[in-house]
């Protein structure tokens, strides 16, 4: 294999790691030596592959700090959607219908494919969500909620689910939820139901029950959809 082919192969391997969330937006790439060992190529090959990725704005170098993943993969699809949602509130029902299908599938596959470490992450985020609820920290609760949904998407081990979730849905949440709190400001009953829905969802995923996980996620989205139609807010 010539040097050009080796560089191309290393670049494709790095791209796959960016797409599947192994190296998430904002993450620092491992050192060149570690990447060279991981992919079985020379450090010069890794260096050239990184330079090509940098030319496409997928990574960028911080002098003295290393090479970091940009958020380009997570924002390319999202921006037009964000603008449409902001300008056309009538799209919200379509968005929630889309979320029902997409996130139902991510929950299903997460229950099938999540690694032990990913299960631990999901359980940890659920505990964080519960603590924020006990502390009446609505902003913290909303943040933990968003991280939990992203962790489930990553655990699905489907690069497209992760990309659509991190790109499109994060922007949709930002434009529709107000101050990151959304439904939780509607009252204790709504907040308590949201917490119960997330606990049911996480239990199904962590117990590896795919159909129950999908049903739990769709039940959650259906609840959000009803609340949005009644009160015009989303979480």
TrEMBL record:
Domain called HTH gntR-type: residue spans: 4-72
CDD domains: WHTH_GntR
Database matches in SUPFAM superfamilies: GntR ligand-binding domain-like, Winged helix' DNA-binding domain
Keywords: DNA-binding, Repressor, Transcription, Transcription regulation
Protein name as annotated: Pyruvate dehydrogenase complex repressor
Organism encoding this protein: Trinickia dabaoshanensis
Functional description taken from the UniProt entry: Transcriptional repressor for the pyruvate dehydrogenase complex genes aceEF and lpd.
Any one GO MF annotation of this record: DNA-binding transcription factor activity
InterPro entries reported for this sequence: GntR_C (IPR011711), TF_FadR/GntR_C (IPR008920), Tscrpt_reg_HTH_GntR (IPR000524), WH-like_DNA-bd_sf (IPR036388), WH_DNA-bd_sf (IPR036390)
Record-linked PANTHER family: PYRUVATE DEHYDROGENASE COMPLEX REPRESSOR, TRANSCRIPTIONAL REGULATOR, GNTR FAMILY
């Amino acid at each position: 294999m010539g040097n050009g082919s080796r560089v191309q192969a290393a670049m494709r391997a790095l791209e796959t790691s960016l797409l599947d969330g192994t190296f998430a937006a904002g993450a620092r790439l491992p050192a060149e030596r570690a990447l060279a060992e991981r992919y079985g190529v020379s450090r010069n090959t890794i260096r050239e592959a990184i330079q090509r990725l940098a030319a496409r704005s997928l990574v960028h170098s911080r002098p003295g700090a290393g090479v970091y993943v940009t958020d380009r993969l997570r924002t390319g699809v999202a921006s037009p959607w964000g603008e449409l949602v902001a300008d056309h509130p009538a799209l919200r029902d379509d968005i929630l219908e889309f979320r029902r299908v997409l996130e139902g599938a991510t929950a299903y596959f997460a229950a099938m494919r999540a690694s032990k470490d990913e299960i631990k992450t999901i359980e940890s985020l659920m505990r964080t969500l519960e603590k924020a609820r006990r502390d009446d920290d609505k902003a913290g609760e909303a943040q933990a909620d968003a991280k939990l949904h992203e962790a489930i998407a990553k655990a699905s081990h489907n690069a497209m689910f992760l990309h659509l979730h991190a790109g499109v849905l994060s922007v949709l949440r930002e434009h529709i939820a107000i101050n990151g709190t959304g439904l939780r400001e509607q009252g204790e009953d709504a907040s308590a139901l949201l917490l119960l829905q997330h606990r049911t969802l996480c239990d199904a995923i962590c117990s590896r029950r795919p159909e129950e996980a999908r049903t739990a996620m769709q039940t959650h989205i259906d609840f959000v959809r009803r609340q949005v139609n009644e009160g015009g807010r989303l979480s």
